[in-house]
Design brief:
single chain
Length: about 140
């Protein structure tokens, strides 16, 4: 019998904040990996916190955008090995509709926060293009 070694798994939450006019909120990463690339707002789930609570907190910390936890809809869990070069990360992604005039300001670890048209996105970090691809399925909104 072979003995398995437990894998260290990190737990994160990401937010897909979208306006009615078809723009998504992204942050420019200010650190490695993928420094200078754009990503969904998100980060680690803290001890004693749910992924939904972490999503609300991370969105506010990184962009200044406030949403209620109850307004977030879960898109799914993303756990493909290799999705993060730092090791095994599992993220739960949440969707939020926000008003078109919502202002975002970079904070925390973000160099910039910007609304991007969904049909004209920059190259994204991690597997965030895959997460956004799920928006094409209208049953996910």
């Amino acid at each position: 019998m072979t003995e398995t070694v437990p894998e260290t798994i990190r737990y994160t939450a990401d937010v897909v904040a979208v306006t009615a006019d078809g723009r998504v909120l992204l942050i420019e990463r200010g650190w490695e990996p993928f420094e200078g690339r754009w990503a969904l707002p998100g980060g680690h789930v803290d001890e004693g916190e749910t992924s939904r609570e972490a999503a609300v907190r991370e969105l506010a910390e990184e962009t200044g955008v406030q949403v209620a936890a109850g307004d977030l809809r879960q898109l799914g869990a993303f756990d493909r090995p290799g999705r993060d070069p730092r090791g095994r990360y599992v993220t739960v992604a949440y969707f939020a509709h926000v008003p078109a005039d919502t202002r975002a300001t970079a904070g925390d670890d973000a160099r910039a926060a910007r609304w991007w048209p969904l049909d004209s996105l920059p190259e994204l970090a991690f597997d965030h293009a895959d997460i956004l691809h799920g928006l094409a399925d209208p049953t996910r909104r």
